[in-house]
Amino acid sequence: MDAALALFILLTSFLTALAADPSHLVSKLPGQPQVNFNQYAGQVTVNPTTGKTLFYWFYEADHQNSSLQLPLAIWMNGGPGCSSVGAGALGELGPFRTNDAGSGLVLNPYAWNQVVNLIFLEAPHGVGFSYSNTTSDYNQYSDDIMASDVLVFILEWLKRFPEYSKSDFYLLGESYSGHYVPTLAAKILDYNKKKAGAFINFKGFALGNPWSDTYSDNKGDTDFFHSHSLVSDEIYNQVVANCDFAKDLSSDANPLCRFAVSAMVNSIQYVDTYNVYAPTCNQQDPNGTILSQTLRENTFMHTEMLAAAYDPCADTVSPYLNSKDVQTALHVEFMPGKWSFCSRAVNENYPIKEITNSMLPLYRSLLKEGLKIWIYSGDVDGVVSTIGTKAWIKKLNLTITQKWYPWKFQDQVGGWSEKYAGLTLATVRGAGHMVPFDQPEQALLLFQHFVDGSSLPGF
């Protein structure tokens, strides 16, 4: 590194530190390797009356790039009720992964903070290190409440980090963030139009395998299982004939539907439905996916179809985040219980009417706002399948501006893409529900093109 570059990095770090909230600076985590960026973490109160507080972990963009010149993004995992810190930050796209012993960290060479300044937010309250001091809050969940709380968080966060107040701002997420993110996007746009306070320079959002339209996603999953020979023709035909795909299939009033869905669940129970070609996680197979013990809680836990049978194993994140030294370093001032990947209580208290609500009306509104919208989809996910995603996008009746084509990654097919007026769809070949975990290099390339606003490379 030459002297001029070293001086530039030093000055950038110094100026950033002057503006950023020093009380949330993470000096160094236990077992952390050396990095070229600052990180901050802590709990931010979003409702002083009830004591509702959300936890975040923020990574500046790597100082090989000028962090203040790069966009700001916030990532949220789904559930409802799963942690963006445990899954997103330490399992998918953050700069660190936990080591095999769960006692320290290793670097992720495909971290998305190479492209943006990146916030991971645990929400709603009751998830991870986020909580409320008011018992009744734990019976009050909805997409709108979630969006309102996160909007308050964003505004409070920008007060603590004013140097990012004019940065291009993006929302990111996967799974049930297919509800969180569009709802929050509409809330931000409405806030900006009212000019009630600081302007949020909101530019768009990217979502991976997003739960968006219950009919399309339920039917798409069923078609996926059948087309991949995971269920028989007989079972498939029974489900299609007897189930209303716009509802929670596990509680369908038609007993013939419940019987057919139960038969489908039995047929797929030994397969990791989050990536149907990945080894399942069990004590006998050390190569099984480490995320299955948490992801069984993810997306649409009210539906039996998603509750495949797994053994918990190889969870190195929970021991790390439950370490008192780690919590102190992350400025966790209060924690009502043990940290966990997913909160069953949050999921079970999240209203089913919210989960089955279609996001298509919101998309029709958001598409008029000139936002950059990308939907990407791991093509071996059986939880929120590409088939279902293509189906609900088709319902939007958008004009195709670039027809379906294979995009290139290292001279191989990385996936397929199609561009529409206002929206880009990209599949990721060989990825399951959590694209940055299954195909990290392809995911990083895709994300770079999203931020740049350029098409994925063709052959």
From TrEMBL:
This is Carboxypeptidase. One of its GO terms (molecular function) is serine-type carboxypeptidase activity. The keyword Repeat does not apply. It comes from Selaginella moellendorffii (Spikemoss). Keywords: Glycoprotein, Signal. It holds the Pfam family Peptidase_S10. The keyword Signal applies. Belongs to the peptidase S10 family. GO terms for biological process: proteolysis. InterPro entries: AB_hydrolase_fold, Peptidase_S10, Ser_caboxypep_his_AS. It comes from the Eukaryota. Residues 1-19 form the signal peptide.
